[in-house]
Amino acid sequence: MKPVILKRTIFQRILGMPATKPPANEACWTFSDGTIEIDLDRVPELSKIGGAIRLEKKKLPERVLVIRGDDDDYYAFRNRCKHMGRRMDPVPGTQTVQCCSVNKATYDYKGAVLSGPAKGNVDIYPVQAKNGKLVIRL
Fold it and tell me: What's the first-to-final CA gap in the chain, in angstroms?
């Protein structure tokens, strides 16, 4: 499979600038005891297929990318490419995520490398949707 390449300028790629933003409402999520909880009513970015947010800080041990996949399921990835450690973005319509760096490492929703120079699969986390919330166990 030849991956679809996200459009980025060379400067965005060199500087590792992802397209995926943190949630507009930082109060939409909490982290405690190894568990992230996201209130879906407070995060419109995940209300549509292909939507995504990146979670950082709040004492998280690592960055997390959360997406609503093209199959309408939710996915959570350790937001660190296995090549250069850059952040990742979902690639609309492909069921893949791609590193924002120049080398464009691409992974499927199971975290497996599909293309690029990554030296292994990216970590994924179990996601459970219940009662209007997403629960992600790190």
Answer: 30
Instruction: Compute CA distances 25 → 19, 37, 44, 54, 103, whole Å.
Output: 17, 14, 9, 12, 32
The pLDDT value recorded for residue 123 is 95
Contacts of 132 (CB under 8 A, 6+ apart): 39, 40, 41
In the block, residue with structure tokens 């300028």: 9
Q: What domains are defined for the chain? A: 10-137 (2.102.10.10)
Q: Which of 79, 100, 95, 98 is nearest to 15 (CA)?
A: 100
Residue type at position 13: R
Residue 6: the pLDDT is 67
pTM: 0.90
From residue 101, give the alpha-carbon distance in Å to each of 62, 68, 89, 96, 117.
Answer: 19, 22, 11, 15, 11
pLDDT at residue 3 greater than cutoff 70: no
